[in-house]
Fold this sequence. Notes:
Blueprint: E1 6-8, E2 29-31, E3 52-54, E4 76-78, E5 100-102, E6 126-128, E7 149-151, E8 170-172, H1 183-186, H2 192-195, E9 203-205
Parallel strand pairs: 1-2, 2-3, 3-4, 4-5, 5-6, 6-7, 7-8, 8-9
Amino acid sequence: MSSLKELNLDYCRMRKLPEFGECMENLSVLSLWGAAIEELPTTIGCLVGLKELRLQFCTRMTCLPESIQNLKSLTILNLAFCSNVVQSLHCLSGLTSLDTLGLTGCFVRPQESRCFNLGNLVSLTDLDLSRNKFEKLPVNINELPGLRRLNLDYCPTLKLLPKLPSSITELYAHGCKSLDPLPSNVCRGIAPSAIHDSDGLLHKHT
């Protein structure tokens, strides 16, 4: 299927995907929203032209294969509510073209975010960490030079914000009950240039 550009298997009941071939370089979108798969085949690394990978609500999936690092063209990855893959998120470190990352509802225990390294995702501009149960964000979030949008909505146990990149123009924190709601605390670590950005307005929703 060398000419295939988009493959949609949303809510498919099969637990194992077929292997992907090296000829499938034209596949740019793979959608597995709510599928019953337990893992991705290692041959997903053959999809070198893949730009968007939708895995939200794949709750049976237990880990990510190391070969996912071969997806150098990937710009959008959504892992919302895939809580079982948290321990293998280090596999994302090679995705240097990743622009948008969705991790809604992935961290179900406060200590899990400590092992998550964001530093290598240098192209990231949109990060969704909403509906997670952690007390602190990954400290190296400030190493993301192009991050513009950060969603922390409904993280009820979040107590402290680390230093954030000065590039941020949108910060969402609805329902963060443990976070001090004072504006001075919300803006801690955000450079004044981000708050009074001439190109846009920093949205503080607390």
